[in-house]
Structure formats: structure tokens, C-alpha cells
Design goal:
heterodimer; A: mainly alpha; 9 helices; about 85% helix; B: alpha/beta; Rossmann fold; 6-stranded mixed sheet; 4-stranded antiparallel sheet; 10 strands; about 40% helix; Permease_MalE (chain A); transmembrane (chain A); membrane (chain A); Phospholipid/cholesterol/gamma-HCH transport system permease protein (chain A)
């Protein structure tokens, strides 16, 4: 039963995406919507991304400095390890899990509310492809802006770590800096960006799917929103594993 | 004109509409009445293409809705206007933007002409001062009027209203009824209203269709409703004492004449 239910949902999701991923009815209106969505989903997430990245970056450095306290390991290992954690996993995967909560619930509840208040029906009656009009700008908007958020997260994560070194001397600043610059591969940045663009598609499309097919009233919209966050988080984790194996393995 | 022929709609083997046939005439206010669960909303959703009939046909001036391609369907939809029970105004847009939206999406008019048209639609429903407000900032009656303005912005040939008076006080209901009736006659629209409101039936019902358990039980004018012998219709329309008294007075008048 669970398998059949999941397959049904997968089919419904594929059919929805077929409606979403078509040419917009009017490019001018699409671009207006796109700029609104970039502002709402992306720009409005900058502050939370900066705050979380700064503090987690700082904590990562403290933890590593405390746990890699071995005279056989050079002190710059702390800077090197922190950079790798921030670049490879924290700023891409963990940040996207956080965005799945913030942005995913926003998308799902907005579209769900439009569904239960018949606003989507109103669009359909007018002859508007409601899925394309409502969902495509969100998907494209988030996929476009997520790399900016990832870069900001990387930068502020490292700034947070640097701040810890500077103020607490957990690791001498010079060693930390040396570690940050050691064995650096630009490919890791591209890997993180490619990964997050894929995650952005998952977050926005899954949240939109749950909102679009919401039924009932406000309680059901809340339920759809929760389901959207749970499912997209699980799929982010699974696809993180697959993408990492594909790109790094 | 919209012609419905032998319309059947089933859900998991259960027939909700059992072969309904009816004709909605142009320039007239056609009312669909019936108890809750009688199939009115399902009928309306089939008429506007939000549901696909199980059997039968729906002819919009000889174009069968059930056989249209998606391109033809899109073209037909632009000839339709719809007023939803809860108004269904777009929350994120102002009242003016709500009315402007269909024009912006489908009309080939210039920007200034579109603005002029949206403004005239708002004027028509006496909402010219509320254009800058959001749906959450206006009353239920104003929301209904804004929905009417949006529905007529593209000069529809067919207007559908799902319980346009629900949640409104009697006075505002009267205003909305008269507005819909006037617009129907003014623009020669085929208007179909799904309602429970007996005041609407008596005031603006040019043609009334009574649906009972998925069948068309009775059809006629609002004058004929007073003299009907149909028991189910009498039970439904004259359920309240007030309407029973109204009927008695009207019947007396008819008999005296």
C-alpha cells in the first residue's frame, strides 16, 4: 500500500512538473514574478543564512581545535578541516536543510492557501496554466539565488571561525589562515554549487507539489507544509549521498 | 447559450449527476437551486471545465466542451467569467491588480487601454475608491463586487457565480443580485448562478433549475415557482414561514385577478 501510494505521488509529481516546466504564457509577467520570488525566497533568506553560518563556523573551529589536539598533527589542520567541512557539507547540504524548513514551508503554505481559497481554480478558469504561473518562478528563482546564499554561507562560516581564532586564540590566527589556504581545490566550490542547485529544485518543487494538491482547510495546509519539509529534507539527504558519490567518488 | 445534454458524473461508481439536460439562455440570469449535496456544485464544476463529465455533452454555442483540445479550451475559458463563493481574489494583489490581471495576461490592448478598462470595471461595481486596497482590507460585499469586476474585465460571454450571496447581509445581497442581473442584460451574457438564496430566486431568476439528488426535478421562471405543484420544490423553496406567507399572499393576488 505504501509503495503504491508513493508511486501514485511520484506520478502526480511528474505530471505536475510537466505542467510547470513549459514556456511561460507571457515572458514579461514571468520575469516580474521571478524577480518577486528571488526577493522573497532568496534575498529574504540572506540574514538567516549569515547568522547561522557565522555561529556554526565558529563552533566548528572550536570543536575541531578541542578535538584535534595532538602534537603530531600540525596546528593548521584546524583551518584546513574547518574549511573542508564548511565548503563541502555545511554551506551546501546543511544550509539547504535549513532552507527546506524556511523556504519550503513558505512555498507550500502559500500555494496551499491559494488552493483551498479557490484562487488556483480562479486562475484555471481564466485560462492561466496555474502550475506554470505559480510554481515555475519559485523553482527558477530559488535555483538562481541559492548559489549566492551558498557563497555567502561559506564566507561567513569562515569569518565565524576566523573570529573565534582572533578573539579566543583557540588556534593562532596565522595557523588558521595557513590551514584555510592549504590544499585548496576550486572544484569543491563548484561541487557545492551544483549540489545546492539540485537541492533548490527539490525544495521548491516538492513544497509546491504539496501545496498545489492540498485539500480541505487551514489544518490541511499546515499538514501539507510539514510533509513538504519532511519529504524534501529526506530527499536532500539521499541525493546528497548520491551526488557526493557521483562527483567526489 | 449553453446546452447540457444527458450529463452524467460519477465518483467511484456513485452517480452524482444522473443524466441532466438543460439549456441556459443568453442574456438571462439562470439559477440552479437545490439542497446541499444535490449535485449543484458538481454541475457547475462540470460546466466550467474544472471536472470532466463521465458521460454527456456541454455545448457552448455548439462547441462541445468535452471534445475541445487544450488550445480550444484555453480560448473558451477566456470567454468565461467566474465569481467564486469566497470571491477567490488574489491575496497578493490589490483590488485594481486583481481586475487588471486577466487583461494583462490575455488582452492585446495597450497598457493605457488596459488601465482604462480595469478602472471602468471598478467604476461599474462602485469600487473606484478601493482599487489600492488589498482583499484583506475590504468587506465581504466589496470582495464580491471586486470579483464581479474581475470576472467582467475581459467581456465574458458566460458568467458563472457560485453562491454569490453567501456570507452577505440581506441588503448587500440585494446589491450583488441587482449588479449581476444588470450586467447580464447590459452585456447580453449567459449567466449561471448556483444559489441557496430564495431572495435571489424571486428577484433575479429569469430561469430556475431545481436539482434533486442529481436529477433536474423542475425548471421554470420565478413567477411559475409560486404556482408550482412540485412537492419537492415547494418543500425546498417555501421551507420558511416567511416564504409560506409570501406564497399565500401572491396566490391570493393571482386568484383575485
Amino acid at each position: 500500500m505504501l509503495l503504491i501510494g508513493s508511486l501514485e505521488k511520484l506520478g502526480q509529481y511528474a505530471m505536475l512538473m510537466r505542467k510547470v516546466l513549459t514556456r511561460p504564457q507571457k515572458w514579461r509577467i514571468f520575469l516580474q514574478q521571478l524577480s518577486k520570488e528571488i526577493s522573497k525566497l532568496g534575498v529574504d533568506s540572506i540574514s538567516i543564512v549569515i547568522i547561522i553560518s557565522f555561529f556554526i563556523g565558529a563552533v566548528i573551529v572550536i570543536q575541531i581545535a578541542l578535538n584535534i589536539n595532538n602534537p603530531l598533527l600540525p596546528r593548521y589542520t584546524v583551518g584546513y578541516t574547518s574549511r573542508e567541512i564548511i565548503l563541502l557539507e555545511f554551506s551546501s547540504s546543511i544550509m539547504c536543510l535549513i532552507l527546506a524548513g524556511k523556504v519550503g514551508s513558505n512555498i507550500s503554505s502559500e500555494i496551499g492557501t491559494m488552493r483551498v481559497t479557490e484562487q488556483i481554480d480562479a486562475l484555471e478558469i481564466m485560462g492561466v496554466n496555474s502550475a506554470n504561473y505559480l510554481i515555475l518562478p519559485k523553482v527558477v528563482g530559488l535555483m538562481t539565488f541559492v548559489p549566492v546564499l551558498v557563497i555567502l554561507s561559506m564566507f561567513f562560516g569562515i569569518v565565524g571561525g576566523f573570529g573565534v581564532c582572533y578573539f579566543t586564540n583557540a588556534v593562532p590566527v596565522a595557523d588558521f589562515e595557513f590551514g584555510l589556504q592549504s590544499f585548496f581545490k576550486t572544484y569543491y566550490i563548484w561541487y557545492a554549487i551544483v549540489k545546492t542547485i539540485f537541492f533548490a529544485f527539490l525544495i521548491s518543487s516538492i513544497a509546491a507539489y504539496y501545496g498545489y494538491f492540498a485539500k480541505g482547510g487551514s489544518l490541511d495546509v499546515g499538514k501539507a507544509s510539514t510533509n513538504a519539509v519532511v519529504v524534501s529534507s529526506i530527499l536532500i539527504l539521499i541525493s546528497d549521498l548520491l551526488i557526493t558519490d557521483l562527483m567526489m567518488g | 447559450m449553453i446546452e447540457v445534454k444527458d450529463l452524467v458524473k460519477s465518483f467511484e461508481g456513485r452517480e452524482v449527476l444522473k443524466g441532466i439536460s438543460m439549456i441556459f439562455e443568453e442574456g438571462k440570469t439562470n439559477l440552479i437551486i437545490g439542497r446541499s449535496g444535490s449535485g449543484k456544485t458538481v454541475l457547475l464544476k462540470n460546466l466550467i471545465g474544472l471536472m470532466r463529465p463521465t458521460k454527456g455533452s456541454i455545448l457552448y454555442d455548439n462547441r462541445d466542451l468535452t471534445k475541445l483540445s487544450s488550445y480550444q479550451m484555453k480560448a473558451l475559458r477566456q470567454e468565461m467569467g467566474m465569481i467564486f463563493q469566497g470571491s477567490a481574489l488574489f491575496d497578493a494583489m490589490t483590488v485594481f491588480e486583481n481586475v487588471y490581471f486577466p487583461l494583462d495576461m490575455f488582452s492585446s490592448l495597450s497598457k493605457s487601454e488596459k488601465i482604462k478598462r480595469a478602472t471602468s470595471c471598478l467604476d461599474r461595481v462602485n469600487l473606484s475608491d478601493a482599487g489600492h486596497l488589498y482583499p484583506s482590507e475590504i468587506s465581504g460585499g466589496m470582495m464580491k463586487r471586486a470579483a464581479i469586476a474581475r470576472a467582467i474585465s475581459l467581456n465574458p460571454k458566460y458568467l458563472f457565480c457560485d453562491e454569490p450571496n453567501s456570507g452577505l447581509d440581506p441588503q448587500t445581497s440585494l446589491v450583488i443580485d441587482e449588479l449581476i442581473s444588470d450586467i447580464t442584460k447590459e452585456y447580453k451574457i449567459t449567466t449561471i448562478i448556483n444559489t441557496h438564496d430564495m431572495n435571489s430566486v424571486m428577484n433575479i431568476g429569469d430561469k430556475i433549475f431545481f436539482i434533486q439528488e442529481g436529477n433536474l426535478e423542475w425548471e421554470g421562471t420565478n413567477k411559475q415557482i409560486l404556482t408550482t405543484k412540485n412537492e419537492a420544490l415547494n418543500d425546498f423553496v417555501f421551507a420558511s414561514d416567511l416564504f409560506k406567507k409570501v406564497k399565500a399572499i401572491e396566490m391570493d393576488e393571482i386568484n383575485n385577478k
